[in-house]
Each structure stands twice: as structure tokens, then as C-alpha cells.
């Protein structure tokens, strides 16, 4: 099953993050803050560089889905990818993709795990342009 089926395809932009970068895991709460902070900063910086490289536009509103292609078939929990996705989205916002990452501008990010394996593991971000919310805060698409 394609992890993007429920979102209607691959999106308007696809950003392949570098493979082999260690993902942040929500279960790493007991880890010392130093290494976690360093990895968060790394993901944020890489996302900024990739957004520039891909020439991502400025959007008023978007849906972002992060698909992780793991290196092995070991069981993983999609929700544990949230810290990695947050750091990547922060890098995209630093680039100017969105004015902010709050719910007025961003739907998601949604974590998904692919059945396809990739050497070293890889996070691929799918960005969907959405219509801006109406003045009443309602989604005009519904």
C-alpha cells in the first residue's frame, strides 16, 4: 500500500532529504539534551538547505507529509517520527515556505512509514499547496 494514497498522490513538491541521517525519535526522552539538540539543529539546517536547493516557493498554506523509508524491516511507530518532522518543518519555515508552522498555515506534518527499504534510511517530504483559510477560519475546500 502506498503511504500517500490517503493524501491524493505525491504532492506538488517532493523533497528527498539526505539518506543515512539518523532520525529523531519521540522515545529518546531519556537521552541527554545535548546530542538531541545537535541532531535537531542538523535536521533543521539540512531542511533549509534542501528547501533552497529545490527552490520551494512561498505558500500561504500547505499540507506536509513525511514518508520515512527505513533501512530494515524492524517494526516502527509512525508517531515516533514527530520530532524529525518538526525539525524539518522548522527548516522549511526558516526558508519562507510558510509564514509559520501553526494550524492557520500548516496541515500536518503527517508521519508515514513506507514498506520500501532504502540504504541507511531516508525521509522524503511531500508538500501539497492548500487554499488559504477563509476569514472565519474555515477551510474553503470543504
From TrEMBL:
Species whose genome carries this gene: Streptosporangium oxazolinicum
InterPro entries linked: RusA-like_sf
UniProt cross-references to Gene3D superfamilies, sorted A to Z: Holliday junction resolvase RusA
Superkingdom of source: Bacteria
Name of this protein: Uncharacterized protein
Amino acid at each position: 500500500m502506498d503511504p500517500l494514497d490517503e493524501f491524493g498522490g505525491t504532492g506538488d513538491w517532493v523533497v528527498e532529504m539526505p539518506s543515512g541521517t539518523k532520525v529523531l525519535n519521540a522515545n529518546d526522552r531519556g537521552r541527554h539534551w545535548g546530542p538531541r539538540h545537535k541532531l535537531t539543529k542538523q535536521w533543521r539546517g539540512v531542511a533549509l538547505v534542501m528547501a533552497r536547493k529545490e527552490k520551494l516557493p512561498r505558500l500561504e498554506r500547505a499540507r506536509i507529509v513525511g514518508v520515512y523509508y527505513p533501512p530494515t524491516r524492524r517494526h516502527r511507530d509512525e508517531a515516533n517520527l514527530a520530532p524529525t518532522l518538526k525539525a524539518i518543518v522548522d527548516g522549511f519555515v526558516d526558508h519562507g515556505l510558510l509564514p509559520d508552522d501553526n494550524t492557520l498555515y500548516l496541515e500536518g506534518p503527517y508521519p508515514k512509514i513506507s514498506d520500501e527499504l532504502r540504504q541507511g534510511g531516508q525521509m522524503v517530504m511531500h508538500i501539497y499547496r492548500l487554499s488559504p483559510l477563509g476569514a472565519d477560519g474555515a477551510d474553503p475546500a470543504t
